[in-house]
Specification:
Length: 319
């Protein structure tokens, strides 16, 4: 038995190949290469079939469902179309020319959720249009992209005489702007007073929270302020908000005070209806009592205009 093992045979008497065995020659390598190439060709064919099916069957089916959820609602169809990414962009860009305002708004909402270089320029073009509803929808979609470049097309309406337009513009810039936009808001804040200053301070503070989140590795995610809950807690938070607003009135550092205000009043901007969230945020800046009493209203706080601000005429509102 020991002789068989030493000679390269197993205990049953069957010869075992040695390391020096030369029987595995060039022809065997050729056969193995041919098999590997055949398997690779099969794999590539399956991948091609999958992408062809996706392009010709699955994508059109998904895109047909893009209006199943109305504007402002994030259902399964909205999530799936947004998840298509760049494949959905050409169709959605074409939808921006639709005669239906709901379709245009939904297309903007979906585009705002897609990371594609064509999105911001397309939405920016609609910020230049005079129709108020179009501007507000485009502004919300730009804010939703979270791209620093999305702030630039919003700035031209950020000093509009129409409070709804300029307040939403400041909040939208707070959601997507970068350090240069923050400096510009700080400079603007030196010319403002009352509610105008509060909204700008919130935008500055929210931006700082975003910047801190990026540094901490949380990709810019900012948690919303907790629900105050019981009336006693509402009173405590309201008192804290009132104190921050008082400090802002007295010339406090807008970076510090604005961040405190944002921590106390931030809405949940992870929802799909960013436009409505921006409208609610304008009310929330006044504190939880005002926010709770607002319900679904979208009218912002009424400001007392500061005499040092030069504001442009409002764009005509559509009925």
């Amino acid at each position: 038995m020991a002789y068989l093992v030493a000679a390269g045979a197993d205990p049953q008497g069957v010869a075992m190949p040695a390391l020096s065995d030369q029987s595995f020659g060039p022809k065997a390598y050729v056969r193995m290469t041919a098999v590997a190439l055949a398997l690779l060709a099969l794999l590539l064919a399956l991948v091609a079939i999958y992408f062809a099916y996706q392009k010709s069957v699955e994508d059109p089916r998904m895109l047909r469902s893009r209006f199943d959820d109305p504007p402002g609602q994030t259902g399964l169809s909205t999530v799936r179309v947004a998840a298509m990414g760049e494949r959905a962009v050409p169709t959605l860009l074409a939808d921006l020319e639709s005669h239906s305002s709901d379709r245009r708004t939904k297309a903007m909402e979906l585009l705002g959720a897609i990371d594609d270089p064509r999105v911001v320029p397309a939405l920016a073009a609609y910020m230049a249009k005079g129709e108020l509803s179009v501007q507000l929808a485009a502004m919300a979609a730009l804010a939703r992209t979270g791209k620093v470049t999305a702030a630039a097309p919003i700035w031209p309406v950020a000093e509009n005489r129409n409070e709804i337009v300029r307040y939403r513009a400041w909040v939208a810039i707070g959601l997507c702007g970068g350090p240069d936009d923050q400096k510009r808001l700080v400079e603007l804040g030196t010319k403002l007073g009352d509610t105008d200053l509060y909204v700008v301070a919130w935008a500055i503070g929210h931006m700082q929270r975003r910047f801190d989140s990026v540094k901490a590795g949380r990709q810019g995610y900012v948690p919303p302020a907790p629900d105050p809950g019981e009336e006693a807690e509402v009173a405590r938070v309201q008192a804290a908000v009132d104190e921050v607003l008082r400090q802002i009135d007295q010339g406090a550092d807008l970076l510090v005070a604005g961040k405190q205000l944002a921590e106390l009043t931030d809405c949940d901007f992870q929802r799909g209806d960013v436009g409505h969230q921006i409208a609610l945020q304008l009310i929330a800046i006044g504190g939880p009592r005002q926010f709770r009493g607002a319900g679904a209203q979208e009218a912002p706080l009424r400001p007392r205009r500061h005499p040092g601000v030069l504001l442009r005429e409002a764009a005509p509102a559509v009925p």
